[in-house]
Amino acid sequence: MPTQPDGRPSWDQYFMEIATLVAKRSTCLRRAVGAIIVKNKRILATGYNGAPSGIRHCAEVGCLREKMQVASGERHELCRGIHAEQNAIIQAAYHGVPIQGASLYCTNLPCSICTKMLINAGIKKIYYRSGYADQLSKELLEETKIELIKVC
User: Fold this and answer.
1) In this structure, are residues 35 and 24 in contact, taking their beta carbons and an 8 Å threshold?
2) Cross-strand pairs, 130
3) Which pLDDT does position 64 carry in this prediction?
């Protein structure tokens, strides 16, 4: 991973590494995803994918999507979990933290449902590490003014 001349990670690398650490809290059996919302180099909210508070995790009851053989990127509603991006937006709202004009750092490119939420939440930039099999998400992002940046 390239660093600055002083050996420290760039801000984008720093925030992506934090998103990667957040993903380690995930309870999803298929894919661990972490997301953080940042504005003016300050973390406003974090989120990882997993079941809502007070609901048993997939790690406890099994993966509904696996049982139903749902392909990645399809039928997002058939899941006990909430996506990392959704949890970050919810956390900000729950604590009254405005996120309009902020950036999202996420270990994966958001799905179409998360993309629509990020558009309406006023997110201006999305930094991601890996892609995601959701063609509608790609089309929605191409249509917006949200800047999409891949961080390796």
Assistant:
1) no
2) 108
3) 86
Is 17 one of the catalytic residues?
Answer: no
Residues 60, 66, 77, 85: which is the catalytic one?
A: 85
- Cβ proximity of 19 and 31 under 8 Å: no
Residues 6 or more apart in contact with residue 129 via CB below 8 angstroms: 16, 19, 20, 106, 107, 108, 150, 151, 152
Place of tokens 């995601």: 132
**How many residues appear in the chain?**
152
Which helix (DSSP H) or strand (DSSP E) does residue 92 occupy?
helix 84-94
For the record, the structure tokens of 127 come out as: 């930094």
Residue that the structure tokens 């800047």 belong to: 147
Q: How confident is the model at residue 70 (pLDDT cuts 50, 70, 90)?
A: confident
pLDDT category at 2 given cuts 50, 70, 90 is low
Is-contact 100 113, C-beta < 8 A?
Answer: no
Distance of alpha carbon 96 from alpha carbon 74, whole angstroms: 32
Q: What angle do CA 67, 71, 77 make, to 5 degrees?
A: 75
Q: Which residue has the tokens 């984008």?
A: 12
pLDDT digits (tens, 9 = 90+) for 84-96: 999 999 999 999 9
pTM of the model: 0.90
